[in-house]
Write a structure and sequence with these properties.
Order of helices and strands: HHHHHEHHEEEEHEEHEHEHEEEEHEHE
CATH class of the largest domain: Alpha Beta
Structural class: alpha+beta
Number of helices: 13
Number of strands: 15
Helix content: 25-40%
Radius of gyration: 34 Å
Low-confidence stretches: 76-85
Strand content: 15-25%
Length: 441
């Protein structure tokens, strides 16, 4: 604790602060005492120092008179409030005597919510902050503690003792924000993240909710006032069941990439994370949830490998490039395809970096720039006259349709440019989404 002389100590204690507010003037000193104990220690120290000064006749004049006045008030200086309203702490106004009431507010707010970890926050009125900071400046204090920090700590400690919940600084599942001016509490429930893989087994379904292009999601006659471009999505098929199970308010699907609306997602499925907003339930039976999603999806979508996740998984999914395996059915618009030439062109594609401008069809939602991607493998599976089925293994982020037809020169080289004939994509399926690049050789 900082050293203060007798005159300063007399003036400090003479402020009439409650013991918590008095002790908090040195609350950052880290002496192992609570602020209330620290405040009491300051009062005891004042009594002893004044008695010693009186015995040695070192206390005289106005300072002596002030010291005696402070000591006469001292038995009441630790009172947080009185029925008459007189004697309230001039700093907190009696607030620090109502910590148990604040805890009860938090306990009430926590009812009906499943969680293991929490955090407490406090909104402090500006005039209280100003009074507190004025005291810090007045006494040139080096290690005071803000009132909000003490409230957070003490309310959190008592709440933990009552409920058995654990305080978490890094990842609280619920944050309770106390408004000490209005004497209320705001409850903020952290999202619940569940990851897994999904297969999309029917064409014509987007990965995520798609606002209607003409009305922007507001609802119009053309979309039957649904606000949606498509009746449903993978996000809705999975998310609605998860929302119901967790009693969340909303949901958002984060996929490791996305397949086109008219493409299937087969094989092991695409990795995804579902973010569920403000869930009241967190302890879910994920195997039962998986079965219920698949039952309601009726073969349109399937999920597997559901497990709890975190926000870092979302960031990782957005950053990882990995590789993907596609099966593409193409057709030549220039007559029958030459098998030998097609095989040769496919064998050379992995040796050339693919420069690809953002396709025109997605430019309305993606930045218009040129990306460089790789094809790791390209193999002819079937050839029937002007139509062929090809398997591509390519770096994540490469648009396969444009790799085939060239997008008017936006993708170079393309299968079309190398063959010297215009091509169109008849059908596209995603066979696998891997989180890592394939091993060389």
């Amino acid at each position: 604790m900082e050293k203060v002389n007798l005159e300063t100590l007399i003036e400090m204690v003479g402020e009439g602060l409650c013991r918590r507010c008095l002790g908090r003037l040195f609350g950052g000193a880290g002496t192992g005492l609570t602020n209330e104990e620290r405040g009491e220690a300051l009062e005891v120290a004042l009594v002893l120092l004044v008695e010693e000064a009186l015995e040695s006749d070192a206390l005289k004049g106005e300072l002596k008179q002030k010291a005696m006045e402070v000591l006469r008030r001292l038995p009441r200086s630790h009172h947080y409030q009185e029925e008459s309203g007189e004697g309230l702490c001039p700093l907190c106004g009696g607030l620090m005597g109502r910590l148990e009431d604040l805890v009860n507010l938090v306990v009430k707010s926590a009812e009906g919510v499943e969680f293991s970890t929490f955090q407490i926050g406090t909104r402090v009125a500006e005039d209280l902050k100003e009074r507190e900071e004025a005291l810090w400046r007045k006494y040139s204090l080096e290690a005071p503690e803000p009132i909000g920090r003490e409230i957070n700590r003490e309310v959190g400690r008592m709440f933990s003792e009552i409920t058995g919940k654990e305080f978490s600084r890094e990842r609280p599942e619920v944050v309770f924000i106390l408004d000490v001016e209005l004497f209320g509490v705001e409850r903020v429930i952290s999202p619940l993240f569940i990851k897994g893989r999904y297969r999309k087994l029917e064409r014509g379904i987007p990965q995520t909710r798609w606002p209607h292009r003409e009305c922007g999601g507001r609802g119009c006659e053309k979309c039957n006032y649904t606000g949606k471009q498509y009746p449903t999505s993978v996000e809705e098929i999975i998310g609605e069941v998860m929302k119901e199970a967790s009693q969340a308010t909303n949901y958002k699907l984060h996929g490791m990439g996305r397949e086109d609306v008219d493409a299937l997602m087969l094989g092991r499925g695409r990795p995804f994370v579902m973010e569920l907003s403000s869930p009241l339930r967190r302890n879910l039976d994920l195997r039962a949830l998986e079965k219920e999603i698949n039952r309601r999806a009726e073969g349109v979508v399937e999920v597997e490998e559901l497990q709890y996740a975190c926000r870092e998984d979302v960031r990782r999914f957005k950053e990882v490039r990995g590789h993907k395996t596609y099966r593409v059915r193409i057709r030549s618009l220039g007559g029958e395809l030459d098998e030998e030439k097609l095989k040769k062109v496919l064998s050379l594609l992995p040796s050339s970096p693919i420069r690809q401008r953002t396709p025109e069809r997605v430019r309305y939602r993606r930045a218009d720039r040129v990306r460089v991607r790789r094809v790791y493998k390209a193999a002819l599976e079937e050839l029937e006259g002007s139509e062929a089925t090809i398997t591509f293994v390519a770096e994540g982020g490469l648009y396969i349709k444009e790799l085939v037809h060239g997008d008017g020169g936006g993708t170079t080289p393309s299968l079309s440019s190398e063959l010297g004939v215009p091509l169109e994509v008849l059908q596209l399926d995603v066979l696998d989404v891997a989180e890592e690049s394939p091993k060389e050789g």
